[in-house]
Automatic annotation (TrEMBL), chains A, B:
NCBIfam families per record: plsX
Name of the molecule in the record: Phosphate acyltransferase
GO biological process, one term: fatty acid biosynthetic process
Protein's job: Catalyzes the reversible formation of acyl-phosphate (acyl-PO(4)) from acyl-[acyl-carrier-protein] (acyl-ACP). This enzyme utilizes acyl-ACP as fatty acyl donor, but not acyl-CoA.
Organism: Acididesulfobacillus acetoxydans
UniProt KW keywords: Acyltransferase, Cytoplasm, Lipid biosynthesis, Lipid metabolism, Oxidoreductase, Phospholipid biosynthesis, Phospholipid metabolism, Transferase
Length: 331, 331
């Protein structure tokens, strides 16, 4: 199995990306890792001497920066690492791609290069959110800021397949992110989506509210891309703000400093449980190929786990699963 | 100045409500507190003997439960505590009302009983969110789940007045809650709202993302009622889940238990900084009178602070301020 890794994408590219890819190559010797990007910038980060035999470099001269207009950049930069990596998947030179670069560019490249699965109206960016009950899937977190009720239904179908196949959650509980518990609550979108989900045959548990998400009350949280993005980034910001405050407050006196040392392992466990890097990344659901989106600030560990996710996606053949579940006849 | 308090509304009514109102009566002897509800249920909670002289009871036989359909309940239950308290404000028997009961019912009662300020298209529920930089205003958090760009502009105007007059924030920085920093990002609503806010003459700092909110990067966060409600409840849920985890992880061994004792004061400080009760409540902005909405789980302290907020709202005459700022000629 071949996994293409966008070596130039992300806040810590290419160093951490290359490092993570090499770790994955060692962890999964049956894989072939293809580092896509500028060879001269990638080479220095390869473990000299001990470079894994299952890591190769695919030269791509250009890069797409975070600021650039995604669609324009992807159209004009045919030799950028994200475009080349995506093309390799389309042309079956790779089974999946992993990138921590501009999410917009990765989405544009996937839509242009791989296209949508037949029957899928809108792809969705799924993300695995840490909760008290482990990682749960939230989608869409930004692919489609103005969604229709039918899109949310498709997100629920795609998300359920992912949660079952990759997160290993049996009969995943699908929750509609809403502002009240009862049916009929919410905005125009959720009021229309509710009956569709109710009739979907999925394990729909009804509306869930923002406060339910961190407690893991749903395995698959469905919402439009605007709301999901706000939810995700708010959670990130709050976790960061919490830890800042804790660091400050539990070290503000000698006694507290001593206590801090004693509880540190516990706090570390919490930090680990909140670490998105554990989940690596999540695919752009609905495109005709496996394109794993990683957090822009991904380091080696996140990339290594993202490669694992890509591998599991290929093995579980969930692109075929989704096309079966969403084939037009179904709708 | 007379403040009507819905003694029957809230998870801890009437006990905590009565207690909080009496505390406020003592703290602000110049106020007259009017407890609205069933006298026989209120009386037992009055400090026997030492009942403050500036606390009176206004009999209201009915109550509106959380589950009930707000508008229907308000129309049919003319003698419910929330309807009576609102009527007292309309008929100038009280200068403001405070309730921790059903937000929907309070909103319906305010709209029917007080009406909208001339020029206000949609009232907004504002809430003060604790951040690393102190309490910041977020609105709308649920009054109007399907907002138009013009509504967001009005929220920004009303919120700025509140932030300046009640939160004491000079030239409050208004942020548009969005899913990207640059102008042009977002969904249809935010794309249309951005230019309106830019041209508003307010201290508009542009788009802010979910992760900026906990850091207090804006003093007034403007969003539609659906997104605001998700943001607020997610923050509540995360804070709760976080403290649960901390409690568990820092007491899971004897050493950690000891350390926990030493850092406890620090954690308490954080909990206090996150305590909505400190802010008491926030008004329904845009209605023609002062109606302070409290968290359903409010206890005495939150009610006491809500009465203070009500008092400050009356003193700052911000209803007049808003009607000046939003008078049709302005638009």
């Amino acid at each position: 199995m071949k996994i293409a890794v966008d070596a130039m994408g992300g806040d810590h590219a290419p160093g951490e990306i290359v490092k993570g890819a090499c770790q994955a190559a060692e962890a999964f010797p049956q894989l072939e890792l293809i580092l896509v990007g500028r060879e001269r910038e990638i080479k220095p980060f390869l473990p000299n001497g001990s470079q894994p035999g299952n890591v190769v470099i695919r030269q791509a001269e250009e890069t797409v920066a975070m600021g650039e207009h995604p669609a324009q950049a992807v159209r004009s930069k045919k030799d950028s690492s994200i475009v080349v990596a995506t093309r390799m998947v389309r042309e079956k030179e790779a089974d999946a791609l992993v990138s921590a670069g501009s999410t917009g560019a990765q989405m544009a490249a996937s839509l242009l290069g791989l296209g949508r699965i037949k029957g899928v109206e809108r792809p969705a960016i799924a993300t695995v959110m840490p909760t008290l009950e482990g990682g749960k899937l939230v989608l869409d977190v930004g692919a489609n800021p103005d969604a229709k009720a039918e899109h949310l239904l498709q997100y629920a179908r795609m998300g359920s397949i992912y949660a079952e196949r990759i997160l290993g959650l049996r009969e995943p509980r699908v929750g509609l992110l809403n502002i009240g518990g009862e049916e009929g609550k919410g905005n125009d979108l959720t009021q229309h989506a509710y009956p569709l989900l109710k009739a979907s045959g999925l394990n729909f548990i009804g509306n869930i509210e923002g406060r339910d998400v961190p407690y893991g009350r749903a395995d698959v949280v469905v919402c439009d891309g605007f709301v999901g993005n706000v939810l995700l980034k708010t959670a990130e910001g709050l976790a960061g703000a919490f830890f800042e405050q804790i660091k400050e407050k539990i070290t503000s006196s000698p006694v507290r400093k001593l206590g801090a040392l004693m509880v540190k392992p516990g706090l570390k466990e919490i930090a680990r449980s909140l670490d998105y890097a554990e989940y690596g990344g999540a695919p752009l659901l609905g495109v005709n190929g496996i394109s794993i989106i990683c957090h822009g600030s991904s380091k080696a560990k996140a990339i290594r786990n993202a490669v694992r996710v890509a591998k599991e996606c290929v093995q579980s053949r969930f692109v075929e699963e989704i096309s079966r579940a969403l084939r037009p006849a179904d709708r």
